[in-house]
Specification:
With 276 residues, the chain is mainly α. Helix content is 53%, strand content 10%. It contains twelve helices and six strands.
């Protein structure tokens, strides 16, 4: 962990909870410019040679490509528009760049007028690792807590104390379970997730528990099993009706239910794997 200086330690720093969007945009602009300078976007977006002029990359018209895939104008060139980005704009561009970053591997130095390296070979996998690390360092400073996943999606960070559950391996060979859990996690954590998105994510986890119910009966007592499905079935998650409990604070309780169900699935799968 980096050292905390006096104003942070004393609680007097106005940005103790994180930097505002305007500062994050400035940091992102500088980080992007440095990556461009070091050749990480040469393969995709091209570069300028003092003799040959602009040499295009794989994407001949990045502005058009962004309009096609993000469906927004006034995002490119990045350093011309970045200070007017909304949070949604920034995260769209971060995800777009993740798809097109690559680490320069080999090339030739062009000495005329200090033109610099003309990169010829690239490694996209290594570029993604470097890019993701730099972006997550920036996002860790932001007042709203997000991170860029290994799949290139900006997601809400796990609540404190639950970080490990998203990294833990699921002890199951059932690809349907794995895929449904992964989809529920993304649905819950994605940027801009609504209460309804989160309710659906919780419902998906409850459906997995229902699918596992025959095996749960073998590892839990009847009372524990009934308590578990009482939450899933009577709190307006999987069913709707006048007897459903729906007066709870949805933001707080959906968060609790999501982590509770996800943790329970891990425990149940591990228990089942041990009794085989």
């Amino acid at each position: 962990m980096p050292k905390e200086y006096f104003s942070l330690r004393s609680g007097k720093n106005p940005n103790a909870e994180g930097l505002p969007l305007s500062d994050l945009l400035e940091l992102f602009s500088r980080a992007y410019s440095l990556l461009v300078e070091n050749g990480y976007f040469t393969e995709s977006f091209g570069f300028t040679c003092v003799d040959a002029g602009f040499i295009s990359g794989k994407i001949k018209d990045p502005q058009l490509e962004i309009l096609l895939v993000i469906r927004k104008r006034d995002l490119w060139p990045i350093n011309s528009y970045v200070y007017d980005y909304s949070e949604d704009d920034l995260f769209d561009v971060i995800e777009f760049l993740y798809e097109h970053v690559s680490e320069p591997i080999e090339g030739n130095y062009h000495p005329h007028d200090n033109c610099g390296m003309h990169w010829e070979t690239f490694n996209q996998a290594k570029g993604k690792i470097v890019y993701r690390d730099k972006i997550n360092n920036l996002l860790s400073l932001y007042k709203n807590k997000f991170e860029l996943s290994e799949f290139g999606e900006v997601l809400h960070k796990a609540e404190k104390g639950f970080e490990a559950i998203f990294e833990a391996d699921l002890p199951t060979d059932d690809e349907k379970i794995r895929a449904k859990i992964d989809a529920a996690i993304v649905k819950y954590r994605k940027h801009g997730a609504t209460i309804e998105n989160r309710r659906l994510a919780v419902r998906d986890l409850a459906d997995i528990l229902e699918y596992l119910r025959p095996k749960i009966k073998e590892v839990l007592s009847n009372k524990d099993e009934n308590d578990l499905f009482n939450i899933a079935n009577n709190f307006g998650i999987r069913h709707y009706g006048e007897n459903q409990k729906t007066t709870y604070n949805e933001s707080i309780w959906l968060s609790w239910m999501f982590y509770f169900f996800l943790s329970t699935i891990h425990v149940v799968l591990r228990t089942i794997s041990q009794v085989k």
